[in-house]
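tokens incoming
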């Protein structure tokens, strides 16, 4: 046992020394990352807390080597940087992994004589569940946010078509709804992306196209294509925009009906199981008595 403790202590000291060396090593910035950080067209959350940046500087070289099952489009939609997601996932995994040392301390106090296999297994399971569970929650949040943004696009398309019918230009019709309907976060995101495109000297439909490609929403790329056609060729797009809004609304309603039917099917399963258990509880005494009399 003393040998095992010595090996564990030596390993922990080695890990601590490696982390200290990584934290103290100053590296030159990568040119691609530096240029991307100066590009105001790309949205990145601001990290202003120096202590948080220091912790991330120590952890990120290790966390970036771990497998992550979250698409970049989901993180972009939620406004989460990948580094921030990794740190949060590591915190979730560490909180669940703490159950292993706690269990080991309780077993030691009780004197059960159980070895270190059970606490180590609990720790490993906690790490796995915490890491994958956080990724699953982020994907669910991204799916909900994507549905909300698609729902907001219906109103946005209608407003754009009304402004075009009233004689507004394509650029004005694309930017005004985001500023007037900024109470919801989807409209604020659209407004911010259009403002970024304006400051970068690009046309509004180019900003919508890039935004749709980053967050994996085809409706935004379709809208950018329609707007680009109207802005370059002067085509009348009022009917096209209204038809696209109607088709998008029908798609959302169909998705909601499918989700409602799936939820209804899931709700019927516990009810059927409850009926089966009640029937078994009622029929078991009679079946037992019948079998014993034969």
């Amino acid at each position: 046992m003393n040998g095992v403790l010595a090996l564990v202590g030596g390993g922990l000291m080695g890990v601590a020394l490696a982390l200290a060396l990584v934290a103290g090593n100053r590296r030159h910035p990568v040119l691609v990352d530096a240029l991307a950080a100066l590009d105001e067209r790309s949205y990145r959350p601001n990290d202003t807390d120096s202590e948080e940046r220091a912790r991330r500087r120590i952890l990120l070289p290790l966390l970036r080597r771990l497998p992550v099952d979250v698409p970049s489009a989901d993180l972009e939609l939620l406004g989460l940087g990948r580094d921030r997601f990794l740190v949060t996932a590591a915190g979730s995994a560490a909180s669940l992994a703490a159950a292993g040392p706690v269990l080991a301390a309780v077993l030691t106090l009780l004197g059960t004589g159980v070895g270190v296999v059970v606490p180590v297994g609990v720790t490993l399971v906690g790490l796995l569940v915490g890491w994958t569970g956080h990724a699953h929650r982020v994907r669910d949040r991204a799916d909900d946010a994507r549905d909300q943004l698609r729902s907001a696009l219906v109103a946005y398309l209608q407003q754009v078509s009304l402004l075009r019918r009233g004689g507004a230009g394509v650029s004005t019709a694309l930017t005004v709804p985001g500023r007037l309907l900024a109470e919801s976060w989807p409209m604020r995101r659209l407004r911010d992306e259009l403002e970024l495109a304006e400051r970068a000297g690009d046309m509004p439909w180019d900003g919508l196209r890039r935004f749709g490609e980053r967050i994996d929403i085809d409706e935004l790329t379709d809208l950018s294509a329609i707007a680009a056609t109207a802005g370059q060729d002067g085509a009348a797009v009022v009917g096209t925009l209204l038809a696209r809004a109607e088709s998008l609304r029908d798609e959302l309603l169909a998705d909601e009906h499918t989700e409602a039917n799936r939820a209804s099917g899931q709700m019927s399963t516990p009810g059927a199981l409850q009926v089966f258990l009640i029937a078994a509880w009622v029929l078991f005494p009679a079946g037992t008595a019948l079998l014993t009399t034969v």
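note: The radius of gyration is 28 Å.
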